[in-house]
Structures are given as C-alpha cells and as structure tokens.
Amino acid sequence: MLIVSSLAYAAQVQIAISTDHTDMVLATNKANQLMFMYYGTKVGCPQQFEQFQSYRRSDYSTEPLAYPARGGRFFNQPALAVKYSDGDANTELTYSSHETKNISSDVKQTTVLLSDTKTSLEVQLVYTAYLKEDVIMAHAVITNKGKKDITLENYASSAINLKASSYLLTHYYGSWAREMQVEHELLTHGIKTIENKMGVRTTHTENPSFMLSLDNSSLDENHGEVIAGALAWSGNYKLQFQMDETDRLSIICGINDYASAYTLKKGATFSTPEMIWTFTTSGAGQASRNLHDWARRHYIYSKGHLAYTLLNSWEGAYFDFNTKTLTDMIDDAAAMGLEMFVLDDGWFGNEYPRNSSRAGLGDWQTNTQKIPEGIAYLADYAHKKGIKFGIWIEPEMVNPSSNLAHKHPEWIVKSSGREITTTRNQWLLDLTRPEVQDFVFSVFDETMKKGEGKIDYIKWDCNRHVESFGSTWLTEQSRFFVDYTLGLYSVMKRIREKYPNTIIQSCSSGGGRVDFGALEYFDEVWTSDNTEALSRIFIQYGTNMIYPAATTGSHVSAVPNHQTNNITPLKFRFDLASTGRMGMELQPANMTKEERTFAAKAIQSYKQLRHLVQDGDLYRLVSPYDGNHYALMYVSKDKKEAMVAAFCIHYQGRTKTPKIRLHGLDPQMKYSIEEINNEKPSFWGNGKTFSGAWLIGQGINPQLVKLYDSGIWHLKAQE
Ligand code: GLA
Question: In this predicted model, what pLDDT tens digit does every residue of 501-560 receive, in sequence order?
Fold first, then answer.
C-alpha cells in the first residue's frame, strides 16, 4: 500500500510537455506517483510545482493521477484496470523514468515509464507535442513483463485533470443523414460519457471528439479557454468526463471497455490509439484551427494537395445504369468542368447481380450485362475526356445472396449458435481473421487492376454496424471489437504501401466513420448521405469544428432532395458545396441548359477559391443554431486572400439584413471584395475596397433576406 502525503508534492520530477503557447505538466509526488498537475497557458519553469499544495488530507485517496489505475487508494474512474493471474485487481503505478526527444524541429516526444509496485506491469505514456499547432497527442503502451498472462479490463489512451469554475461540454451526436449535430451542456457532478458500441460504423451516434469551454457558459468562437479533444480510433470508444466532489474534472478517453477485456500474454505489449488534445485561450475557433493545421500538416493521409471536383453517380443513377449512362455522365461532368467521375454502387455481381442492396456484395466481378466493356474502358474514357476516374467498393461486407456468402460462411461475423441478423440486407466480414484481411486487401487490389492503372479514387463504404458480435476465428471473443479495428488498419497499411497516391474516401452510410483514426489512411470522408443544403449546413458546421474542410465531401444534388424532400435554389446548393470538397451527385441529363451554365460557372469559381477552403484558416462567423443566417470564412495563411460565405436559413421579413463581422483579416491591409456566383450582387460593397479594420469592426451587410438567399465573396489584399 502506498502511503501518500499530499500536503506538499515535494516533487522530485517535473515534466513539462510544451507547445508554443501551452504547457501540460506532470510531476511525481512523495510516493513517486505521477500526477497530472496542469494543462493550460504557459507557466514557465515546471519546477514551481515542487512547492504546490492542495490541502488534501494525506490519508484520504490520491491527488489526480496522470494515468489513473484501478486499485490502491484510487477510487474514481480509472484509465487502466488490470486483473492479474492471482485474482488481484489493483494496480499502483509509480514513476520510473522519462525522456524527451526531438522528432523534428517542431515536434517533440516525451515518454514516461511507469511500473506497478507489485507486478511486472509497465506503462509508457507517450506524449507527442506539435509545437506550432499547440496540439499534444497522447497514448499509452502497456507491457506485461510478468511470467503470467494478465487481463486488461480497461485501457484508455489518455487522462487529463482540470480545475475550473464551470465546464461547458460541446459534443456531436447524430444518425444516418443527420450527422454531427452540435449539443452543449454544463457538466454537473458525476460522469458524462460519450461513447459508441456499434463496432465499425462508429460515428452515427456520437463522434469521438468534443470541445470544453472553461469558466464560460456558452461556446465562444473568439475568446476564452477551450480544450478540444479527439480520439483517433475507428472502433468502439468512450470519452468520460467525471466531475468529482471537489469540482475537479477528470477526462479519460480511449477504446471502450464494453465487451473488450483483452488478455495480454506474458511479454506482450498493447499500444492504445492516440488521443489528440489542444488548448487555447482564443475560443472555439482557434481550437478548430489548431486541430485543422495539425491534421493537415502532420496527420491525415492526404497532405498538401487540393481535392478534385467530381460527379458521383449515386443519386443520379443509383443501381440503374449501363455503359452509355455512365459515359454520358462522364461527358457531362467534363463539359461542366468537373475533374473526376466516380462510379458508385451497382457495377458488380453476375450470378447475384448488384441491382439493389439485396444482392451481390462480396462478388466483386464487373457486371457484364451493365458494363460489358469493363471498368478499364470507363476509366480510359474518363481519362480521354481529361478527367479522373473513381469507383465504389464495400469490401468489409457480404450479402447472403452472393457467391462469397456461400463459399465462406465462416468469414461472417456471428455469435456461435445464434441467428445472424442482416442490416441493409448484408452481413459483416470478420476482419479479425487473416484470410479475411487478405480478401479485403484483394478486393481493393483487384478493383485497381480492373482499371489497368487508370483508377484514381476509391470510395470505401461500410453500410452496417456490428450486432451479435462473434468470430469463429478468435478464441477470446472479447478481443473482437479491438481486433476488428486493428485488422482494418493493417489492411489499410498494406493498401497504402501499394497505392500511396490513390485518393480514398471513408464512407459509412455517409458520415458513419468520421474520425482521425480513419483519416490516417483515408484522404477524405463522405460527410453525410444527406445532400440537402439546409440540413447539410448543420452537418458541416459540426463536422468542421473538428475535421478540416479539406477532408469533408460536399455535393450538389437534385431537388426535391432525395433525403428530405426540401427544395433549395441551385445557387444555394453550390454556395454551400463551395465551403467543403465540392462535388455533384445527380443526373446532369436532367438539368436545364441554364442550370448547366450556372453549374459550370460555379465550379470554375470554386477552383479559383478552393485553396482557401482546403488550406486556409476557418472562421465561423454566425452559427446556424443562433439565428436566421449561417456565415463562415476561410482566410489564407498570409491573410492576403479570403472567401466569405453566407446563407439565409430562416425568413424573418424583408428588412432584416444580417451584419456579418469578419475575422482573421489583417486590420492594416486593404481588401477588394468581389461577389461570385451571382448576376445581381447582394452586397453594395461589391467591387469596392475596404480596410481589414473596417471589415472586422463594421462587417458586411448583404441583402440576404429571402429564404435560401446566399452569397460568396472573394476578398483580395491590394498591394
Ligand atoms: C451508402 C453511401 C452512399 C452510396 C450508397 C450505395 O449509403 O453512403 O453514398 O454509396 O451506400 O449503396
């Protein structure tokens, strides 16, 4: 038993994990436990924590631990819970050593080694600090150095502790066709949990990310202390916020312990996924910009190239097409200036043709009735028209009506002796199994080969979640959820080794797999199946709080919208699509001549501005939750160029014009304003020049008063 005197830390060791504007400080107490002392603005020399006193009773529990383990004097939510072979369920970690190394000039990594006082369990806490972006990535590496197997019952990635007068949690919930809705709540005593237990389609309930405003009862875009966090894991996760009786908040994030006890064999190591943290004193906007910069510069697969505009066949053709339908769509896409055509679902299966969602998944042979000329013909056709070619696959899935399901029933996820349920008429393949990993890799590989080197883009879908979990391969069923995700990542690693330049989209019935774990391998996400511009405003507003617009697909589709029935003007749809990775998803043959002319112009303007959307700094100007308008802007890093977009989303009379104050500009610079995609400009300042200071202080007041009026302005600094 550790005897802890907490009256003073008398810390022997202080460890500062620092970025340009933040410090995270860990320190040992008298009992040599590693405590989480601080996360916030820079405090200078960490040695100051040596004198820190908390007045806590020395014989009553412990102070906040940096990686709290179940047992000993600790009784709050643990990050680590271990059961040993002798039945002992306590772990008491103490500090052994630490080291910091430079990964590059602006990335530093600190590793702290902890060990249990009784057993041979070791935990390394690894913190990677991205100095310029003020981001700290944290994970744990757990090693069983003992002679017997142990069971990890809980094995979170990271824990932090905070003390503030109030904690406002902003988080994102959603479902199919309504992802990433923003919710705020002031935390009270007890535990608030954000989690998912659906296994593979992990973000159709909640997203593994959040923002936390300290000492503030509302989310402020521009002021105040905000911590943002996101877990890089595409499986079950749990983010826990426990406010204790002393008003201290402990946040523990990691893989969900639900049905996931994990045996760690003697000598074995388990490495948890990365938890991403950022802290700022400049509000939620800066927290988003920190995450976006970090993601784009250091983490997500697609680094540094602009996304192509595209036409996707799904809402335009669904399962009903032949070669001519597709080549006509390619012609139309090229004529409107789009840069890629993506053939969605429906191109495969012969004995069990994929003419609906009821058959064909698993049989990845080109349907010879629909496309007798083959995929290479289509890809070649697109290339000859000067545009790129992409194709849809859903390699983790199988329909009962397929050759694959008959050939390999043992590959299907199921609990032994129970009925296998279908969702969207399909089952899930067991990616914990090496042969299934090989198969999923081969689906990708063989599809690429079908294109004979001319496939530029793969849309990877995943249209069901896990139910009746179980594997005929695993002896330990509680490894299923974790090993599935590790299996997926191992396949993605192989794919990336062979196909480093193929653009890959993570789709899962829209935004069902939107997390930084996926984005380490995928270039982008399909933000939602809901392509209706009004709903999409809310979906993109939430998604882009955490994930950069460079990763979020945003398509213009037909009206009435297939998901919501709503009718919005083509301009409104294009303007909204311009704030993400623009695409179209409709049958161009059904467009009028005027609509095509407008589309071609809007696509052309987007190409002039997309570097701002995809590489620039996002400023959310007016929240769609707050009133009649939604407005945002993207500013180039040198502040010489910006794009502002605004949308009227509620009719409130013809006289209530919005006042949109701009952000992120240089007050000293002078900017010209040009309205695009509009024959009749909605802002009187169109074509005029204003100082940055004026635009920040006074702002613009475009006449966006009718429902679904919208505008886009291009700001350029004058020399
Ligand atoms: C999912 C995707 C859609 C489309 C269909 C095809 O729902 O989210 O974009 O690809 O599957 O079946």
Answer: 999 999 999 999 999 999 999 999 999 999 999 999 999 999 999 999 999 999 999 999
Active site residue 215: no
- Give CA–CA dist 534/648, Å, rounded: 10
Q: Which member of 257, 529, 575, 617 is catalytic?
A: 529
Q: Is the CB of 529 under 6 A from ligand 1?
A: yes
Question: Is residue 509 lining ligand 1, measured as CB closer than 6 Å?
Answer: yes
Let me know if 461 is a catalytic residue: yes
From 23, 461, 575, 615, the catalytic residue? 461
Kindly state the percentage of the chain with pLDDT values over 70: 98
Bridge partner residues of 429 (DSSP): 412
Question: What Rg, from alpha-carbon coordinates, does the chain have?
Answer: 27
Query: In this structure, are residues 182 and 172 in contact, taking their beta carbons and an 8 Å threshold?
Result: yes
What are the beta bridge partners of residue 98?
Answer: 112
Atom of ligand 1 nearest to the CA of 344: 10
Three-state secondary structure readout of 81-145:
EEECCCCCCCCCEEEEEEEEEEEECCEEEEEEEEEECCCCEEEEEEEEEECCCCEEEEEEEEEEC
| Verdict on whether the full-model pTM lies above 0.85 | yes
As a whole number, mean pLDDT of residues 290-309 equals 92
* Residue 390 beta carbon below 6 angstroms from any ligand 1 atom: no
Q: What are the Cα distances from residue 242, in Å, to 75, 160, 161, 191, 274?
A: 12, 11, 10, 4, 20
Do 432 and 490 form a contact (C-beta atoms < 8 A)?
A: no
Spatial contact of 375 and 366, defined as CB atoms under 8 Å apart: yes
d(CA 693, CA 668): 7
pLDDT at position 3: 38
Residue nearest to atom 2 of ligand 1 (CA): 509
pLDDT of residue 223: 98
The 10s digit of each residue's pLDDT in 652-665 is 999 989 999 999 99
Region of poorest pLDDT, from 9-18, 373-382, 387-396, 483-492:
9-18
- Of 176, 357, 397, 463, which is best to mutate to test ligand 1, by the most ligand atoms within 8 angstroms of its C-beta? 463
- Token representation of residue 117: 């006082």
Q: Is 122 in the pocket of ligand 1 (CB under 6 A)?
A: no
| Residue at token pair 């490894």 | 479
What separation in angstroms does the CA of 60 have from each of 75, 143, 623, 632? Answer: 10, 30, 46, 50
Angle, alpha carbons 454-457-461 (nearest 5°): 135
Determine whether the shortest distance from the Cβ of 319 to ligand 1 is under 6 A: no
- How much distance in Å is there from the Cα of 51 to the middle of ligand 1? 58
